[in-house]
């Protein structure tokens, strides 16, 4: 591995001026302002909930925004993952030696709270770039060049980023997996026993051709980097786009489809999001009527009718359970969305929940296409 990632620092978004993403993250999901920078046509606002940090780059300018790139992308999207590395300069040189494009060579930034060095590399995942950051010499709340923003404590619905899911073109997962392994030290994480890394986990459509392939990757041992999930459509002849194909079309190619945010209390978090006006995906009606589902929910110490009312999915057994709920897209283009996830001893993603998400997103995609 050329540049082992030690932790995820932040996820950056690029949106047009006036788009209410930063406001929605605060109002709907409990993120709080952390630091801000306004210069060169950009307003860059960092928001935090627990250890999860989002950087909203709003506007456009003649110069690149700090710690990233202006992707000149046609639609608002999540465009950058910033990883902490031991030595940003050495990491950038090592990746360049592997053939990676380095559009922003190592840059050192300094203010009264210390210094940091970063470089930006292009990834093979569409408009997604990666920032390599060394801020061991910085003592401030975010990064040099940003002004701290005082804020009250948030509701604590989100504690950290659990996973990141990239929507990929068909048959591209093996190539992406090798790239993240060689460049950042990620390794295959099986989602099912005996899984072939080249094939991943295949989720077939309930009727007709097509389906979904998921390949999970984990960062080097000892790092604080979320699991990376590669999602691609299984080839099939259908009259309607599935949700990955729709993302690729609306986003203009591969990219970050959703972020899984860990919550210590998914029922409380979901109630808060809905109460603030957030919109969640509705699971298929048959999900909660599956044989054994009520018993499974009760075994987790939860009330089936409450889960159904709030749209929370549950999978697992033997005292290990996974709870998930998914938002509708945060953008009018119906691309990027968020997931709230709580783990009660479970480490995977639950094949039953994956199928339910697939079906609910197919239904949502159909409604969008018919609108």
TrEMBL record:
Entry keyword set: Dioxygenase, Iron, Metal-binding, Oxidoreductase, Repeat
Keyword set includes Repeat: yes
GO cellular component: mitochondrion
UniProt-listed GO biological process terms: aromatic amino acid metabolic process
InterPro entries noted in UniProt: 4OHPhenylPyrv_dOase (IPR005956), 4OHPhenylPyrv_dOase_C (IPR041735), 4OHPhenylPyrv_dOase_N (IPR041736), Glyas_Bleomycin-R_OHBP_Dase (IPR029068), VOC_core (IPR037523)
Gene3D superfamilies: 2,3-Dihydroxybiphenyl 1,2-Dioxygenase, domain 1
Cofactor: Fe cation
Superkingdom as given in the UniProt entry: Eukaryota
Domain VOC per the UniProt entry, residue ranges: 7-135, 160-328
Any GO molecular function: metal ion binding
PROSITE patterns the record matches: VOC
GTP-binding is among the record's keywords: no
Family membership noted in the UniProt record: Belongs to the 4HPPD family.
Protein name: 4-hydroxyphenylpyruvate dioxygenase like
Species the sequence originates in: Monodon monoceros
């Amino acid at each position: 591995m050329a540049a082992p990632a030690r932790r995820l620092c932040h996820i950056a978004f690029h949106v047009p001026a006036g788009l209410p993403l930063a406001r929605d993250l605060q109002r709907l999901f409990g993120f709080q302002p952390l630091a801000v920078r306004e210069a060169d046509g950009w307003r860059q606002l960092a928001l935090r909930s627990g250890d999860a940090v989002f950087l909203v780059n709003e506007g456009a300018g003649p110069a690149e925004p700090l710690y990233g790139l202006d992707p000149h992308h046609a639609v608002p999207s999540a465009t950058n993952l910033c990883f902490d590395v031991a030595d940003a300069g050495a990491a950038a040189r090592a990746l360049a030696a592997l053939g990676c494009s380095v559009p922003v060579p190592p840059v050192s930034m300094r203010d009264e709270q210390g210094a940091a060095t970063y470089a930006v590399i292009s990834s093979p995942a569409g408009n997604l770039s990666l920032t390599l950051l060394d801020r061991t010499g910085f003592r401030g709340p975010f990064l040099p060049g940003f002004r701290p923003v005082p804020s009250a404590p948030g509701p604590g619905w989100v504690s950290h980023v659990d996973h990141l899911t990239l929507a990929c073109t068909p048959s591209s997962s093996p190539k992406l997996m090798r790239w993240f392994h060689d460049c950042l030290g990620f390794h295959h994480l099986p989602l099912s026993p005996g899984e072939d890394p080249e094939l991943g986990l295949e989720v077939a459509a309930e009727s007709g051709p097509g389906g979904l392939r998921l390949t999970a990757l984990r960062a080097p041992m000892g790092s604080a980097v979320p699991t990376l999930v590669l999602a691609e459509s299984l080839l099939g002849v259908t009259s309607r786009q599935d949700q990955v194909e729709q993302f690729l079309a609306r986003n203009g190619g591969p990219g970050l489809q959703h972020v899984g945010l860990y919550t210590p209390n998914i029922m409380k978090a979901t109630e808060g999001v809905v109460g603030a006006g957030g919109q969640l995906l509705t699971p298929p009606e048959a999900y909660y009527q599956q044989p054994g589902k009520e018993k499974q929910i009760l075994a987790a110490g939860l009330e089936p009718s409450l889960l159904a009312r709030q749209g929370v999915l549950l999978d697992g057994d033997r005292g290990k359970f996974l709870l998930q709920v998914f938002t509708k897209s945060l953008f009018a283009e119906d691309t990027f969305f968020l997931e709230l996830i709580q783990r009660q001893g479970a480490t995977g993603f639950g094949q039953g929940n994956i199928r339910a998400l697939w079906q609910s997103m197919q239904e949502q995609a159909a409604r969008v296409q018919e609108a």
